[in-house]
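Usage

Read records sequentially. Each one opens with the input sequence:
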Amino acid sequence: MDSPTLSRNQRTTKTTIIQLDYNTNSQYQKLRQLLTTYYYSSVEVSVSVSVAVAVHPSVLIIQRIIFLLLLIEGLKMQKVNGFSSNGHSNEHGNRTLLNSVHYPVPIYLKKPINVPEKLLMGPGPSNVSPRVLEATGLPVIGHMHKEFFQILDEIKSGLQYVFQTQNPWTLCISGPGHLGMEAVLVNLLEPGEKLLVGVHGLWGFRAGDTASRLGIQVHQLNKPLGESFNNAEIAEALERIRPKVLFLVHSESSTGVMQNLEGIGELCQTWNCLLVVDAVASLGGVPFYMDKLKVDAMYTGSQKVIGAPPGLAPVSFGPRAVEAIKSRKTPVQSFLLDMNLLGNYWDCIGDGKPRGYHHTPPVNLLYGLREALAQMTNEKLENIWTRHQEATARLYAGLEALGLDYFVENPDDRLPTVTTIKIPRGIPDWKIVTNFAMDRYLIEIAGGLGDTVGKVWRIGVMGYNAYPGKVDRVLQALREGIDYAKLHGRL
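and closes with the structure output:
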């Protein structure tokens, strides 16, 4: 058997020609792949193949020696011929090796991720159950696979249950609650049309800001922080402004106010107006009936009471809202949020057309949402509402025992899932308390948001955290944090 022979001819162009006389095509292919991987276009490999016969062990040894020699030769060429290290050809026209990089590896990414376990008792996100957390680690599958479409169908039915609606156009936006807000506005309103926004906190203001960026005429109905609107105020504004859409925040988490919606749906129908509701911090934690309340469109967040990871915004559009979308004179201004396209992907439209690709959704987050909804359906909404009511009552009793005051004075206006507490006198800085709770107990207590910054603390009792033991833990952290802050103020 002839041994492989190697001849090298260094041309003036610095291109190496490697001639291999080898007697097995499969072995050549392996070696050629290795060589071209390491040398890329700086090496030309040619082979004359002899009769294919069994390879003697000595040939395999020689093969490895040849490979090592070639690798050493390539390193010499890189040094002698002036290969650049910036990923481009140098002055001689040679190419660099494929593994050349501009910048070094970030040192922090050399270690595995480390995330501490905290008790999240702020306004969201909330902790998720072990079942939900485990679901997010399941294998990734394609977003156009039949198994994933089945998961989407199950999510849709679960959302209809939690929303208490039969709307076919019930689905999930890939993005935070903010994107749910933008989705309902951009689909229902065209540039130049009127929007009436109830503003009694940050989220009403955000809705107006979002709409104005879309070219919509925004009219505000304002109320002092900590108060809700009554029906007479809303009726007067509807008659005066005649908007296409009325936007109300059911759960104003920046102030801790819950807006009463009884009778407002009828008012909107009287004035031929669509009712849109933000229920990000309330849905699932308090009784809510979308169809019964005649809400035309609404959205929520996955990370609050529902108990899934952040990053998803469930939405639902009723018949009047769907008709408004279908009768638009101009296209929806956002491709990503166009319900005509998303509705097809989620199989909401009912026109018999097959599901089409729109975008790649966060597959594993949707696994988590599916399991969170499954847990809610197993527990049943009535029991979840009762559990949240009892947990909030326990929180209220603890706050009153500490002599603390509510920011929302009218008990009927208080949002049970997010409680706002006035910063008491003697506290030099509200952050001392929140930092104490986090540093000592790894418990999150939030400060204010928007115009309530520096005025309140916010404690959330939502989803997997709406249990007596967790309420007691946050009360203990708050009590000790206040004592620590007062002591700090006297020093």
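Summary fields computed downstream for this record:
- The chain has a mean pLDDT of 87.
- Residues 182 and 210 are 7 Å apart (CA to CA).
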